[in-house]
Amino acid sequence: xxxxxxxxxxxxxxxxxxxxxxxxxxxxxxxxxxxxxxxxxxxxxxxxxxxxxxxxxxxxxxxxxxxxxxxxxxxxxxxxxxxxxxxxxxxxxxxxxxxxxxxxxxxxxxxxxxxxxxxxxxxxxxxxxxxxxxxxxxxxxxxxxxxxxxxxxxxxxxxxxxxxxxxxxxxxxxxxxxxxxxxxxxxxxxxxxxxxxxxxxxxxxxxxxxxxxxxxxxxxxxxxxxxxxxxxxxxxxxxxxxxxxxxxxxxxxxxxxxxxxxxxxxxxxxxxxxxxxxxxxxxxxxxxxxxxxxxxxxxxxxxxxxxxxxxxxxxxxxxxxxxxxxxxxxxxxxxxxxxxxxxxxxxxxxxxxxxxxxxxxxxxxxxxxxxxxxxxxxxxxxxxxxxxxxxxx
Amino acid sequence: xxxxxxxxxxxxxxxxxxxxxxxxxxxxxxxxxxxxxxxxxxxxxxxxxxxxxxxxxxxxxxxxxxxxxxxxxxxxxxxxxxxxxxxxxxxxxxxxxxxxxxxxxxxxxxxxxxxxxxxxxxxxxxxxxxxxxxxxxxxxxxxxxxxxxxxxxxxxxxxxxxxxxxxxxxxxxxxxxxxxxxxxxxxxxxxxxxxxxxxxxxxxxxxxxxxxxxxxxxxxxxxxxxxxxxxxxxxxxxxxxxxxxxxxxx
Lengths: 393, 250
Description:
The complex is a heterodimer. Chain A has one domain: Orthogonal Bundle (Cytochrome-c3 Hydrogenase, chain B). Chain A has helices at about 10-30, 75, 85-90, 100-115, 120-145, 150-170, 195-215, 220-225, 235-240, 250-255, 280-305, 355-365, 365-370, 375-385, 390; strands spanning about 35-40, 50-55, 60-65, 180, 185, 325-330, 335-345, 350-355. Helices cover about 50% and strands about 10% of the residues of chain A. Chain A is globular, with a radius of gyration of 21 Å. By secondary structure, chain A is mostly helical. By secondary structure, chain B is an alpha/beta fold. In chain B, the strands form two sheets. Chain B has a six-stranded mixed beta sheet with strand order 1-2-3-6-5-4. Chain B has a domain at about 5-80 and about 125-215: NADH:ubiquinone oxidoreductase Nqo5 subunit (Beta Polymerase, domain 2, 2-Layer Sandwich). Chain B is built from seven helices and eight strands.
């Protein structure tokens, strides 16, 4: 299997080359720049991101994101907590898709302990993983409209996301922070009638996707402001750890650690990885729209085939993870999220490196914003899509 | 199971993947020679290698440009010294009963007892996968999209008092920029050749390197953890207390 080469067309390449050349000329002429401070309280920054940009006229010469307004030091905090306690904490990393944060950590612990969750638990895990993806990405699909001045889509997004959050709450007790995954299985089984309710909720999400396609994707203003804007070539994306630009790579299918069937059941489903060759803001939006539809398709199949059986493997009452190291990553709503767990055999990990998707997505901004225009900064940031808690951890 | 060279789990479907990793390890051994200090391979799972400090940057270059490991995953560091503040799950009362300081140690940074100093000198990643000789290590991970393999690369950096320097990866993987800035502020490791090595999260005037083990977690010093006091026995399980009960059930 080879990675597909990006099919970026010449128009975009020349556009980006032109932008870069302009920026270079400006630097060489020592054009007197203006420094503009965006954030940390600007509404377009989804939280407390601060961006210091040096401008020449409308053009960005240099962009410098200032991080750390939400740094909570999770990597330090987890060193003094037991494994079950950590599960509560890491729910707060990417708060829009909390369940997806728990899964790679639990899988890493299971790998070290040599435990495998029973099939029913694996099925329901995958189910909630995809529901988190839907809950997370629906908000993004609406939010992109707000950044472009269209207020309606985000209302639809908040309204329809609630259907999914209700289902997550019905099963786990928490709308945002389910804390539902356990080493060796799950906290609870599904409540009665949940499967049918979830099917109804998926119908709402499918309708929402169609509405978004009508409202946003076909919109002339949207196309004008996103097509060919913020192009990231595949090679650059990869060296920043970002999956984009037509690269056919998805950890749900291509997980190098333990193969696709490690703890989740994606290998038993019929689905495809969506890519878009352009690598611009439009492509990023379009791919996520398709991913929500694909997730609905996957949840449908999962609901049809949940096996019977226990939801918890036999695990010790007091969880001690044997000595060793493991890195497990999953394809979270925003990209790859993984935990490098170093255990020395105690109740608490010795070191946990949290590899979060938004951190990598955000670290590419100095590169991609160079040479763009101020209004495009907002759309590019929105299309890269980050959660501040996921950057700062 | 530290530093076992090859650890065979189950054979069968995983053998093919394992062949890929073995071939990669052979290629790395041929290329790096003596600079490849140690390796650890878990069949069907993952590969760890440890390279010499000087070969850190050139290993990245080789992996990216010759082995087509184009996806940069992450870069970080680790401090192998055991925490001088004791196990934080010990209740303060336990420490007093054992004749220790209720905080588990003498308190603040740079104020260790002799035992702590000795531990700091001996600390190394010797027991870790692919080994280690010094207290501080950097490690990073890259993927190949063509072979669908990942590899974790480690390198020793030094002990406290050493310069703690290692070459930068930013020339090979531009995405290493922020990761190295984070490792710089959290562990105090300097990446030689980095274009703008400055703090990422912390305020500019922050002193200390928070992720080092001897940096106290102030929240726990101000209000010590009460310890495990409220563990109720599971129904039907005789309360043997602590570990014995856990293992009995396993």
